[in-house]
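ugh finaly. both done.
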Amino acid sequence: MTTQDRPLSPHLQVYRWQWTMAYSILHRATGIALGVGTLLLVWWLIALATGPEAFDTVQAVVGSFIGRLFLFGWTFAMFYHLGNGIRHLFWDAGKGFELEIAAITGHAVPVSAAVLTLIAWAIGYAVA
């Protein structure tokens, strides 16, 4: 049997796509995004300690359209990961496993993350 004749991984043949799969993948992706975003924060802190020229460079990157888009995504990742983490804490306590509750909380996490992201950015622009 060649590698081309092998069947696909069983999970691709057996499982139907579900929202819980998407939310699980998004949780992992936001965790990675938070790690990458933290590198930007470290760069910013190092530049702050290095001097005005280095800090101005980082500020120019962060203040650009792409930089702000990245920060917006990072903000969403933070709120999504936080919300899903709280959801998992309830699961660790044995709460929220009923299908209806799990579905409601599952859908509520990305919606609340989006709303909290917009609120945070609105406050940020209002204060600045």
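ok and the 2nd:
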Amino acid sequence: MQYSLSTMLPIALAALFSLTQALPSGIALRASSSQQLADAQNDWRADTSIVSQFLSAVPTLSGSKLEAAAQVALDAENDELLHKKVLDQTFSSDKRIVQANDVLVTQGTFQSVVDALENFAQNGASMSASDISTLLQKTNSVRCSQVLPAIDNYFRVTGEKLNNGGFLLATRPTNC
């Protein structure tokens, strides 16, 4: 018996479709879950990079440019919470995540960065150079020593779960 390609192709595609429908639901969920974790990690890192770029540039900004750039950084900082939530849902029982969450949320370090960025965004144009420098130093003091290392812990745990051969680190500002 001979079959043409036009006859066999629909049969093969139908068989392939029925196989994928018969896969246990856990397989599809694991792939989706891994992708969600990778996306959350990568998007969180992108947001931390935006904030770090802003903090690196603060000494060169003033007036409305400072406020506009601070608003972009503030939006990115607030967006980080969405990505954190995805990772929290998966790793809530991991001791390293519990500790990192304690630093970020319970100790209020993350909120202190949000507050500083909000201050830059709302009041930057009227701040003196000295006030800008002081706020930048306070912000970097907390962010560089506590917030970013806690985010690194989230990334480390996620990297272990993804087992993709590497670990991301949160981007630091040049004046960290």
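summary for the 2nd one i guess: The chain has six helices and no strands.
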